[in-house]
Amino acid sequence: MFDVDGTLADSERDGHRVAFNEAFADAGLVDRWGIDSYGKLLSVTGGKQRLRAHLASRGYGEAEATRLATELHRAKTQRFREMVLDGRIPLRPGVRRLVDELRQAGVRMFVATTGSRSWVEALLDHHFEASTFELTVTAAEVPRLKPHPDVYLEVLRRSGLPGQGVVAIEDSANGLLAAQAAGLRCLVVTNDYTADDHLPNADLVVDGFGPSANQISGVPAPLPGGAVTVATLTALAS
Ligand code: XBP
Ligand code: MG
pLDDT tens digit string along 156-214? Predict the structure, then answer.
């Protein structure tokens, strides 16, 4: 099962962050999220929740922060969807190869994300053939976002899969916690924003999908040519 933001797609720094800033500007607000400060804000999952936390820290009352966050998030989602449709949100290096290998090997693939369906579907449609992922669960379909396990549990429920033998592929501490709480094995592929995340007991942590990825921690697992492959995931699943 794949996470999307920071895992399948390199979407945060030059994608979501930019769209949030455009939404601030469109609303006539002076707020802007810089590259470093956005990294800290990522500890709050969910764009609307991130906006609400930011507005609360700026002194907005609860009701006003919620109202404004909802309005800004609607505008941000529209902006980000346009970026996706324009092809401005790339996959992470090595993702295309890995997904193609998994398809050829007949491995079932799913998506579990706290992102919003309107852009998630557009992004998957833009980069992958229609039947690549059997089903996609997004923020709208569950009561709680990561680090709660709800999106993962919902994929298990709808697919009928037992958790055993399923590997979650994540990029962050919040994603790892969600996968572990759902009882899944978890491969964490870190990126610039998550390289310093605390990742306790992850089954395997690597710094990229390859080639020339390095193992950071976890169980001994094959990384042929420094790449995450079907063999890597098979070893984690068993
Ligand atoms: C991703 C998120 C999302 C995105 C923004 O977390 O938390 O909020 O940052 O997307 P994960 P939305 O990778 O753990 O799923 O604005 O659509 O929420
Ligand atoms: Mg992620």
Answer: 999 999 989 999 999 999 999 999 999 999 999 999 999 999 998 999 999 999 999 99
CA-closest candidate to residue 77, choices 149, 140, 157: 140
5 among known catalytic residues: yes
Q: Quick check: is 36 catalytic?
A: no
CB of 16 closer than 6 angstroms to any ligand 1 atom:
yes
Do 230 and 102 touch, CB atoms closer than 8 A? Answer: yes
Q: How many whole angstroms separate alpha carbon 231 and alpha carbon 204?
A: 13
Closest Cα to atom 10, ligand 1: which residue? 115
Give the torsion sign (CA, 57, 63, 68, 74): positive
Q: Is 114 in the pocket of ligand 1 (CB under 6 A)?
A: yes
